Structures are given as C-alpha cells and as structure tokens.
Give the backbone structure.
Amino acid sequence: MDQGASAETLLWSAFAATAHRRASAPALDFGTTSVSFGDLAHSARRAAAYLTKLGVVTGDVVALQLPKRASTYAVLLGCLRLGAIYAPLDPKNPPARTERMLARLKPKVLVTATAALNPFGQTVATRADGSLNSDGWPAPLGDAVSPAHAPSDPAYIMHTSGSTGEPKGAVIPQQGVLSLMRWSGSLLGDPDQQRFTALNPLHFDNSVFDLYCGLVAGATLVPIETADMTDPMLWVTRINETRASVVFCVPTLLLLLDKLGVLTPEALPHVRAIVFGGEGFPIETLRAVHARFRGTARFINVYGPTETSCICASLELNEAALAAATGPFPSLGRMHPEFTHSVLNDEGQAVAHGTTGELWIGGPNVGLGYFANADETARRFRQDPRHSDYRSLYYRSGDLVREDDAGQLWFQGRMDNQIKIAGHRVELEEIDGALEAQPGVVRALTVLSNRTGTPELVTAFETSAPTSLATLSAALAARLPAYMRPARLIELPKLPLNASGKVDRRAVQALADADNAAVPAATALATIDHVRAAWAAALGHTSFADTDSFFDLGGTSLALTRVHVALNARAPDTISMLDLFANPTVTRIVHFLDRSVSAPAPPSETAAARAQRQQAALQRARARGPGSPA
C-alpha cells in the first residue's frame, strides 16, 4: 500500500479487504469459541451503525473501557469505519483516574465494563461478562458512502503516564499504523498464514501491533486476558491450543515464563516468532533463550515510544547481534526507513558520531501530539532546532542513545525521571504529585529500586502533620493504577537537599536501596502468619523457611492457585497470580502485601545464596520422608 490519500490506504479499508478475502477464516480464536472475519466485519458494520445512532461522526472520540471480547473488537473496528477516534482505557483503573481521563477526552460515547459514567455524552454499559448486547444494534452500515479520510487523520488515542501528574493521550495517525503494518509484513511474511497472540492489554501500546499487524492484516488473533487469566501456565495452554505462531510481549512476561521452565520450543511448539519490547531484556538470559530456540523461532527486539505508532526501530537477533552487546541489553536496532531521526545534544545540535545524545524522531508516522494538551504537545513535539526554514516536526523521546557505524541504536539512559515497570511507561513525577495532593504531605520523591532483585517503586516524603501510612497508601490506590503504586513509603522529617536546594535524588535512591533492618509492624506480623498458613495448606506441610521458594519446595502452579484464593479471600484483589509468581517466598509476598508498611524489603539474592537456599529446601523436603504429604 502507498501513502496516498485514496480510501484504500486507510485502516477500515484494509480490514474490509482482509474480511472479504478471508471471510470464512477465523479472525478471533478464544480457545473454546471463534469468530470468522466475515462475521466480525458484519458486527463491526452494525457497531458503526449503532454508534451513528448515538450521534458519533468522523473525528469524535469514543472511549472504550472494555475487556477482550468479540464485541469489543467489533466496536473498535466500527470506530475505524466511521473515522471516529477510539481511546482504550484500563477497566481496572481507579475510578478517579478514569474520571480525569474522561474530563480531558470529553468523549461522545463511553463504552464500559465498569460503573463509570460519561458526563459528556452517552454511556453504554456491557453485560456482566464484559460483552455488549448487540440485539438492538441497527442493520450494518455499508461501505458505499464513507466519510472523507486522510492518512494523517487520527486513528486512536493511547495514554501514557504524565510528568505533570496527569496521564497524556498520544494521538496517532492512520498513516503511522499503516507504516507499522508494512514493516511487520516485510519482516514476518504473509499474515494470512500466521496466528498472533494478543497478550497485551488493549490500553497498553503494544496491543497496537497485535491488532493491526495481526488481525487487520489478516492473521488470526488469539486474545488472552492476562488480567483475568492470571496463571501464566494457562497462557501457555491457550497459545498451544490455538497454535499461535507469533508472540509479542514485554520481556517481564518472557522472564516469568523462563522462570517457570516453559520458555522452550518443547513447551511452545507452534511459536515461530517471539517479538519483545517496551523494556530491556537482560542480555545473558536472552542469549540462553535464543540458543534454546535456535532453528525453531526468530527473536525480534523492537523499540518505539507510544508517540511513534508503537514501533519505529527493530533488530532481528542472531549470534552476531547478541555477541555485539557489551552492556546489559541488546541493541534497539536500526530506525525504520519511514522515520527520520537525529541524535542531538542539549543545545539541539547533532552529537559527534558514536557519542551519546537524545533521540529525536520525525517523519509522517510520528503522533499528532497529546489530546487537548497543548503545553505537553509543545514540549515534546518540536520543530527541528537546526533550522526554521520550513515545518519539520520531531518527537523528543527523552531517550539517550548512541548510534554505531552500522546505524544500530544503543540505549544509554534517560534525560528525565521516566522509568519502565513491566513495559509500562511511568513518569515518577505523577506518583509524587498524587502523594503531594494528600493533606499534610509537603513534598514527595519517588525512585526505582532494585534492592529486592525485582524493580520496585519507593517514595520518600515529608509532612507538616502526623499522617497514617495506611491512609496515604489507600489514597494512592484511589488515584493510580496498580503498576504505579509504590511498594514502600518512607516518611522523613525532611527530604534531603543538594547544594542547589533541590531534593537530592541520589540521597533518596541510596535510602531506598539501603539494607537497614526495621522491626516489622503489627500488620506485617499478622500478614506473615496468614501467608504461612496459606502456604502450609497448599503444600501440605510446614517444613519451610520464609525465604524458601515455593517452587523449590515442590509447589506447582495449581498449588499456587490455592494460595492465591486464600490470600484474596482475606482481602479481594490484593494480589494476582502474576504477583505470586514474581514473589515466590513468604518474605517477598508479605512485603508485597504490606505496601503501606515502611518495612525493609528482602535483599536481592546472589547465585551462591540461591544455591544454598535451594539445597536447604531440598534437605528439608527429604527430611519429611516419603510418607509425608506433598
């Protein structure tokens, strides 16, 4: 497809052509049920007619706060048919966060599986299972008369964390998504022969690849709702049942599967391509996994801020590429040919080749700015600072990179306080602002600590009056999604200052990383008894230490499900199966559950200590004898 302005280049036309070509082929495979391309296109046209009945026209915003159901994909595609801009929102957002996002979007329609209401237009609620009742939808809206579209028109709005304390909605043009589809097709081959997983949440930028490079291009899409199906072993089962061949996810998920021993060609026999991005994949583990899949599956590292239509650079890994990595992560790859880029210094001038500077990304596939947010748009989407002869906009990524002689980009850090948690982009100032909005809190500063071996957020703060950590933690839970909530809150008489009179981030970082012990609070003592009891019931014995790994003790994913049920019976929705897999000891679970307690986190574990712990667990298991319960 070229980038001209004909209707055939636009996203709805691309899907309509796919649905015509593959009418009887499965478009969505949910494992137990499937939906053909023909049926999905019919539903999408009915959804477009329904949205029209609600007053939606080209350029209107439709907010979608929905799980992955067939009707969700129909409504999303119906938006494309109308030229409406869809904005996916997290169904698990705290209500206050959803309200703030709606206040900026002012959507014509909110379609939601939550109790949220749209004060700016219509609200359409789903049934209890998250699906929409389409019985009352009108007859399909045909394609004979379509609204006038241009490739530069918006397709969707994807939200990211904002340094001002509010989420930002990046507006992405249709031509950016079409460019993404062209890149994917050239790299992965005929999509008609592929089955793509949809592991990424719809409100998460990576889902754009699943939806467009997969479904819209002609591949069968395998939706997996990881927020509901929390046991990773069930993800593997679904991938195998549906014979999915292309997997795209964040490295955190792949590392979890590796920890469980199922990131192997034997456990994933149908997978032919593993695409990953959103955060760094530790190079030593990546080398081992890549060798394991040699001759079976390709590994592709991708890079791209949300503002660059999901992906703008990539690298297919081979032994030479892996050997070339001298740092902790592989190269980001080369910039795709439909983007321009420059590596600039603080003065806006090109750095010497091979040295570090900020990556500026330009071209027609970069986003159109942040929705209803002129200040942030002006700050990030900038005229090329090297000239003013004509309009030449770039997106300032804030990523520090160096470019080698082969055009490979190597990540060197950030210019600001943006970090990644399991692929989610987080501006630390948004967390600080949420805490500073609470009564009595004077200042707050959040850092990312790796003290436990797993990245966690730690916020230090000072107050003008006595405060309750539990109250502050509850207030943060009401404002921030789970991945943005601090694992620890540390109250200080005064935040440390540097010579310039600003809060000393390095001092707070050192405090967060410190190993100083503290007496567990009463809530932590109560929690540890509860966790021990849940473990004992699941394992069938009490011969374990608080630092033993559940899996070293012979625990299975099924047994861990029992722990999950027991812990959530005490306080619903406090810990997911994914959290339990990431925190496999009693000590770490207690630390995770008692985030409102400023107690020390368990220190990270060396390889020698891990081997010693595993040997001790094995000896205790042997001591129980063959007649002991497993």
Summary: The first strand starts at residue 26 and ends at 29.
